[in-house]
Amino acid sequence: MSQPDKIWDKLIDNNFKVSTDTRKDVANSIFFAIKGDNFDGNTFVETALEKGAAGVVTENPKFKQKPHIYVVDDVLDTLQKLAKRYRETFDIPIIAIGGSNGKTTTRGLVNQVLQTRYKVYSTEGNLNNHIGVPLSILSMDKSSEIGVFEIGANHLGEHTKLLEILNPTHVLVTNNGMDHLEGFGSPEGAREANEEIITWADKHKAIVIKNKNHELEINSPLPLAISWEGKRYQTNLAGNYNLENINWALSVGAQFQIIDKEETLEAIERYKSLSQRSQLVIKDNNKFIVDCYNANPTSMMLALKSFVDSVSHPRGIILGDMLELGEYAGKEHKRVVKFIAEQKFDVIVLIGKLFKKAVEKTGLKHVWFEDSATAKIWFRTQAFDNYTFLLKGSRGIKVEQVIET
């Protein structure tokens, strides 16, 4: 019997419980010793077994012939192939959600709407890449009636590889934006990456879900309240741009014959966004729109325009660098600074070396900090009262630290 078949049988015995991090619960799981840029799971083989792992998959040849250890040529490739094999045991609709911005919020809203009729499995957290998607697949409960998966990419070809593993029956692309320009090479490259999803769907006869306008109106933006046929629905989302994500959820619901719009909008009211994604935080008599899980030029401008259009004075912005833009970094940070200069903000806080360079010689009244930890020290000394702040920046900047206690 081949090693993959042996691991497959072990996974069946273990109810497909897998792990990749010995700092978390690995008891009774199959530990896959993944090698990353900053870590090597192969160095934790014995630790995993000591912590109760039922088996370990590793590339380290020194563990050959050891009980409960499976030595393979490529751990990640083995994980992906086993996930694909597990996916093939399901005969249910599988939805893949990709795009430049709004994937996670759209996925959460879609999950909320579909749950009004079906037992739904959805990607947890941010497991949307070459490691996360296989882990998500292997976590899907056998009783699931629909699977909703998020797929992300930062270089060309990655969407196609993920789709080959997931083999969705339905796909949707939230939008085309300027994300991961360093990896995609250009805005055209980003669009090409998203087009991979449609191309794959056409080739494999998967249904491409289209977004429709569901005649919703915005009542108030903070938090976002919408109305339909005279009735008001209060969401837990912050920002007008989330209306597009709500329309996506309703479009997916309609695709699966959920046509009671009142019921679906009530489900959307119950949705609470994940940490640092369009969250409204009220603290010390101030409001904070915390939308800093990630940032690219498209999402940054959407957030700023929504903030300007919907928030009254006193208001301020706390923005961190947009990372992974490659040769476009200077140009895009200057474009953001130009937009800021044309608006009226009571407080402007910029964090990171890219914004420092972009704001030079502009005369823009602002305060700048090298990192969020330093900005936090300054922020705690201020006496802001009844302000509304927008926090936005790339994950590496961790802008949310500014308001943490």
Question: What would you note in describing this structure?
Answer:
The chain is an alpha/beta fold and 405 residues long. It folds into 3 domains: 72 residues, 3-Layer(aba) Sandwich (Udp-n-acetylmuramoylalanyl-d-glutamate--2,6- Diaminopimelate Ligase, Chain: A, domain 1), CATH 3.40.1390.10; 181 residues, UDP-N-acetylmuramoyl-L-alanine:D-glutamate ligase, CATH 3.40.1190.10; 125 residues, Protein-Tyrosine Phosphatase, Chain A (Alpha-Beta Complex), CATH 3.90.190. The chain is built from 14 helices and 18 strands. A hairpin with a 2-residue loop joins strand 11 and strand 12.
Any guess at the CATH architecture of the largest domain?
3-Layer(aba) Sandwich
CATH topology of the largest domain: UDP-N-acetylmuramoyl-L-alanine:D-glutamate ligase
Any idea what the CATH superfamily of the largest domain is called? Mur-like, catalytic domain
Helix content: 25-40%
SSE topology sketch:
Elements: H1 3-13, E1 18-19, E2 30-32, H2 45-50, E3 55-58, E4 69-71, H3 75-87, E5 94-98, H4 103-114, E6 120-122, H5 132-138, E7 146-150, H6 158-166, E8 170-173, H7 181-184, H8 187-204, E9 207-208, E10 217-221, E11 224-228, E12 231-234, H9 242-255, H10 261-270, E13 279-283, E14 286-290, H11 297-310, E15 315-320, H12 329-341, E16 347-351, H13 353-359, E17 367-369, H14 372-380, E18 388-392
Parallel strand pairs: 1-2, 2-3, 3-4, 5-7, 5-8, 6-7, 8-9, 14-18, 15-16, 15-18, 16-17
Antiparallel strand pairs: 10-11, 11-12, 13-14
Helix pairs in contact: 3-5, 4-9, 4-10, 6-8, 9-10, 11-12, 12-13
